[in-house]
Amino acid sequence: MKDAFAHVGGTLATGLADVTSDPAALDSGGWWAVVVTYEGKVTCARFTDVRPGRPPAAPWRGPEKWTTSLDESAYVAGVRRIQDAIADGVVYQANLCRVLSAPLPAGADIAGLGALLAEGNPAPYAMTLRLPGTEIASASPELYLARDGDVVESRPIKGTARTVAGLLPKDRAENVMIVDLVRNDLGRVAEVGSVEVPALCAAEEHPGLVHLVSTVRARLRSGVGWPELLAASFPPGSVTGAPKASALTLLDTLEPVPRGPYCGAIGWVDGDSRRGALAVGIRTFWTADGLLNFGTGAGITWGSDPVGEWRETELKAARLLEVSTGEGLGQR
């Protein structure tokens, strides 16, 4: 079996010591890699050797052909179903996703894909992780939760285009809706009056596209730990919808396969310093049952153009899929 490791932000963690599904462990000592699937399965892995470093050198060969859990006609029909639900007052917005899958080529190593993504699509919350039964290479641009002591911050993304000029009024409206949702989520565990929005709908450039990004910050109440913080805010609002409970129910009827790590949480927690950063699991590859998977989606509002939303899912996936085929570029 290949050695377990985590690589995030220039830090290489090896020496796997513990694996648990209990997020309360994150409030104890040690450095932890964390994955929470969209469906809520928690994996916390403690590593004993944490140091600056590059990911392990490994070969990679990208898949040749992808299939999708929702083709264009099914996706467009799903968008219209969501718009019907908006008209009926069930939701205001919902994030419809699809999962792309391809056979994992023989000899391909997730570490090689992670290095390739770091070269071809650098991202602020990138992470590569190999654990028993879990392999992930993420180029996430979105912060779900960062914690420094009692201060917690989320930076939801809503609004995507190729250029700033391509952003629509619908994008800003969608972002504001999700900011309200995140404010309410954090408010459940925050000190009264501490929730603030330092930045609203700021344009942020990433490889091949531009996003609208907001920042929500709060101070946690005394006694609040990672279990309470996750319970109050998971799944991330930017990849579910508003109201969150209604959106989750609706999306469960429209999406034919589980999202897995996609749209979940991926990152690290240092229990000794009480710091950590969990990304939203977007722009993320993961392996399962001999397949390499990749998720993509779009936020649907009353003003959405169904075909335009399908094209947004293609835009979000295009660069990452192209980078993943760059045979040899990530090998060192």
TrEMBL record:
Family matches, as InterPro entries: ADC_synthase (IPR005801), Anth_synth_I-like (IPR019999), Chorismate_C (IPR015890)
GO biological process: L-tryptophan biosynthetic process
GO molecular function annotations of the record: 4-amino-4-deoxychorismate synthase activity
Database matches in Pfam families: Chorismate_bind
Chorismate-utilising enzyme C-terminal domain segment(s): 72-316
Name assigned to this protein: Para-aminobenzoate synthetase component 1
